[in-house]
Amino acid sequence: MHNNSSASFDKIAALIVAAGRGTRVGSGDTPKQYRLLHGKMVLTQTLLCFQDFPTICVVIHPDDQNLFDQCLQALPKGFPPVQSVIGGATRSLSVAAGLDYLQNSTPKYVLIHDAARPFLKSRTIQNVLDGLENHQACVPCLPITDAVKTRDGTAVDRSSIVKVQTPQGFHFAAIHNAFAKRDAEKDYADDIEIAKEFGLSITMCDGDPMNSKLTFAADFDQNTPMISVTGSGYDVHRICEGKTLWLGGVEIEAGFSLLGHSDADVALHAITDAVLGAIAEGDIGDHFPPSDDQWKNARSDVFLKHAIDLTKQKSAMLDHVDVTIICEQPKIKPHREAIRQTLSDLCKLPLSRISVKATTTEKLGFTGRGEGISASAVVSVRIPQGTPS
Ligand code: MG
Predict the structure, then answer these.
(1) Extended beta strands in 63-136, E state
(2) 57 Cα: distance to centroid of ligand 1 (angstroms)
(3) What is the pLDDT of residue 188?
(4) Which partner from 54, 99, 333, 344 sits 20 to 30 angstroms from 188, CA to CA?
């Protein structure tokens, strides 16, 4: 926080509105303000934005008391005391409850902020406070950069409209008074609307594009830090009599086959093990034991799809596959593009993220003597930081 402004915070209260249910985030019963983001509850992170404020009040839902207690426990030692008050069925009822509560501490200014905006910077807080020097209300806004149209396609002059953020700042007595006079039946979109209805002087200040409101599940996904991990896999299958063999999900007429419990697709097995390795989920034998008859003659794409499903369950993403097939015969080059395309379909990755290479061992070793074929694979995966094991 700005050193030159800390003293003035004495007369400023932060009112965090956290009583909503956050249903648009989707699956899960936990309201969005209590969901984890970067390993911390959203509300905990929002509170940290106000660590220089001596008076902080959070409006909570009556069902959320336990979650709120957990959120407070995660605050650092020495954090200013955080008060709480039970909110109402609408946002304005909740804010009204908070303002009534804060009346006892007689703040000069109040900053009313959405619990689901944890990326608030001190610069924006300062912009709002600066605006309150000459106005009774100040709201951080952003210009609209995209073209704006009504639903029937009529162009709207975007220079006349702005996006409105929080914290919205007010002279406490003026906004408390306006709330007391408002139509309690009406649900106002935000607090500035009430300020406008009751004639407070309002100014706008610069908002921050980073100060976005977490609304949808995708907002959480986008804000989850990912780390890049690597997995490697290796496999060998013995050459046996036959006409065709499977390599990388493609059936190739080689004049011989590969021996195995499944279709013996050595390349897909190496890739599957690499994917399992990246997410530390054991190896292919753990998931598909050769002793289990249901995998007899199984097509190996089943194994790879399973490994990819496991990555998805961990909210991880396969980014790149590089496989090397080691054999004298068959020649891989004529089949390379078919294998890449098959892997691209299986892994749901563009061809540019699928590399298939081949080498011989100069007639040395078991691959050189034509006794077997081996494959080695490396994959890159992005996985959320702090994924539990
Ligand atoms: Mg194998």
Answers:
(1) 82-86, 109-114
(2) 60
(3) 87
(4) 54
| Beta strand segments in 90-206, E | 109-114, 137-143, 148-149, 155-156, 162-164, 168-171, 202-206
The model's pTM is: 0.63
Decide if pLDDT at 38 tops 80: no
Residues near ligand 1 ion, CB 5 Å cutoff: 235, 269
* d(CA 7, ligand 1 centre) in Å: 69
Q: Write down the H helix ranges in 198-265.
A: 217-222
Residues listed for the chain: 389
257 CA distance to ligand 1 middle (Å): 14
Tell me how far the alpha carbon of residue 261 lies from the centroid of ligand 1, in angstroms.
Answer: 8
**Residues contacting 252, CB < 8 A, separation 6+:** 244, 245, 246, 330, 335
Tokens 């910077």 sit at which residue? Answer: 121
In this prediction, residue 6 carries a pLDDT of 44
Q: Give the pLDDT confidence score for residue 25 in this predicted structure.
A: 55
Q: Count the neighbouring beta carbons within 10 Å of the beta carbon of residue 370.
A: 13
236 C-alpha to ligand 1 centroid (Å): 6
Q: Is it the case that residue 71 has pLDDT exceeding 90?
A: yes
Q: What is the DSSP letter of 196?
A: H
